[in-house]
Structure formats: structure tokens, C-alpha cells
Specification:
elongated; 10 helices; alpha+beta
């Protein structure tokens, strides 16, 4: 289990109801009920955000940034920033939360904002609430594509900066992958077409960090990694179907254990079903 997720599990007084961890372990999404408690708080390089779903009462947090003491109602969230060491006293709560290891997640756009004022009050914001609920719902139906959790964390960080009154960070320009790198990537996908591939595996072929790779690929092709991977697989599938392979054979060769999922992806990319393409 990645270090951040392992630490959160150790801190919980009872087994976690559910956690979802990003591919690189730098972002954890969790939903859990916590008993009323108090103690030391803070970590040198973790940002934590907790959206109250149920329960609540008076929340007390004293850190180097100051003191937060306020009634905590469902729909409000609190923020504990990296380096915010101190003491807390919390009522019994059910939380939908996000934790980010800022030391490991080096490629956050614009870095992490300096927003000490956010930890001194509770917040109610439809953007952050919607992002957290959307990420959790997607994870529950196993619909989180590679990089989805990291991207959601980026949106949350940008929104925190806006809530603190910072202007939106200018997106960093990424150098696109070169023609040689694209050929190398295409060769790897072709060779491992039937295997489950994620962003970390694709980035590793080029010796790049997953987030840097994702931006460079998008700059070169206009597509995020998962879309690009699916496009490459479907291009091969079109040729294989025209060559006489069955839909099931092609689905297996493209890494789909379920032909119906392959057919849905094929129709989404090509515009017709695999069987219709075979008759084309």
C-alpha cells in the first residue's frame, strides 16, 4: 500500500470504509466515519481536505497559522495545509476527504498555493464539493481512467487558490513529445497491446514522470494518455477486423476481457460497431 494511504489507514480508529489511491500514490480519496477525537495534527508535506457529509459539531484547530473554532455543518469542508502543525478537537463526523502528498506530487501546476488563511475557517464551495463527489462516484463504478484522480486533485488545488483570492495560475507550457518519442511510444503500445497499461507504464518507456508525460503527449497529439492509448488500439483493431479476425479475438488482442466493453470503445472511436466495420 502506498505510504500516504497506509498512514491514513493507521490513523483511523477503525478500518476505513473506502479509499481510492492515484497510480503514483500521491493522492488519496477517502470516505470514512470518525469518532469524536482530539490530538496532535499536521504533516510537513501533506494537504488534507475534509468535506463533512454527516455528523458535526464544534471543531477546534490550533496551528501556527492561528485558531479555527466554529460549528461544523454538513456541506462544509476544512483544510489542513502542509506544515500546519498543532492541536485539534473534532466532533464525530462522516467525511469525504482528499489527501495530497505535496512532496511526491512535484508536478502540481504552479506549485501549491500559499494560502494560510484557508485553514482558519470552514468553507462551503460547490466546485470542490462537486469534484469530490464526482471522483468518488466514478471510483465506485470503476470508471476512473488513469490520471483521473490526479487531475481532480489539480482542480481542487486551483480552486483553493481562487478561494484564497489568488488569480488563476497560468498553465505551464509543456514541450511536446518528439517524433522519435512518439514512435518509441507507439512501438511499446503495439508490443504490449494486450496487456493492461497505465500512465505510469507509458511514461516509464520514455523515462518521464507521469504528469510531465501526460502534458507532453497532449501537447503533441491533443489527447490525454488514456484516449491516445485507446485510439492506437482501435487503429490496430480496424485492420485486424478487416483481416478476418473475429470481434472476440480482436477484443482479447487489444486487452479487453469483455468483448462488449471493446465494442463500446470501438464504436466511440470509429463511429460504428466492430461487426459493422468487418462488413465494411
Amino acid at each position: 500500500m502506498p505510504a500516504l494511504a497506509d498512514q491514513l489507514h493507521r490513523e483511523a480508529a477503525q478500518p476505513m470504509e473506502g479509499t481510492v489511491t492515484s497510480e503514483d500514490g500521491s493522492v488519496v480519496l477517502l470516505r470514512h466515519g470518525f469518532q469524536a477525537s482530539e490530538g496532535a495534527m499536521g504533516h510537513p508535506h501533506q494537504l488534507r481536505l475534509g468535506l463533512l457529509l454527516a455528523g458535526g459539531g464544534n471543531l477546534y484547530q490550533r496551528t501556527s497559522a492561528g485558531v479555527l473554532q466554529a460549528p461544523w455543518h454538513p456541506g462544509q469542508f476544512n483544510v489542513v495545509l502542509p506544515g500546519d502543525h498543532g492541536h485539534y478537537a473534532s466532533p464525530a463526523v462522516e467525511l469525504l476527504g482528499m489527501a495530497i502528498d505535496t512532496a511526491q506530487w512535484r508536478d502540481a501546476p504552479g506549485g501549491f498555493p500559499d494560502v494560510p488563511s484557508l485553514s482558519l475557517r470552514l468553507h462551503r464551495d460547490p466546485v470542490i464539493a462537486s469534484v469530490l463527489h464526482a471522483l468518488w462516484s466514478s471510483a465506485q463504478v470503476d470508471a476512473c481512467v488513469p490520471g483521473f484522480l490526479q487531475y481532480g486533485a489539480e482542480v481542487v488545488v486551483r480552486r483553493l487558490a481562487q478561494l484564497a483570492g489568488h488569480p488563476p495560475a497560468r498553465p505551464r507550457m509543456a514541450a511536446p513529445l518528439s517524433s522519435r518519442q512518439l514512435r518509441q511510444l507507439q512501438g511499446f503500445i503495439e508490443e504490449h497491446r494486450s496487456q493492461p497499461l497505465d500512465v505510469a507504464a507509458l511514461a516509464g518507456v520514455l523515462g518521464m514522470e507521469p504528469t510531465t508525460f501526460s502534458r507532453a503527449l497532449r501537447a503533441a497529439t491533443g489527447m490525454p494518455p488514456y484516449t491516445y492509448l485507446t485510439q492506437r488500439r482501435m487503429q490496430w483493431a480496424q485492420q485486424a477486423l478487416q483481416g478476418g479476425l473475429s470481434v472476440t479475438e480482436v477484443a482479447m488482442a487489444c486487452g479487453y476481457a469483455n468483448p462488449s466493453k471493446f465494442s463500446a470503445a470501438f464504436r466511440r472511436v470509429v463511429g460504428v460497431s466492430p461487426s459493422a466495420w468487418s462488413r465494411h
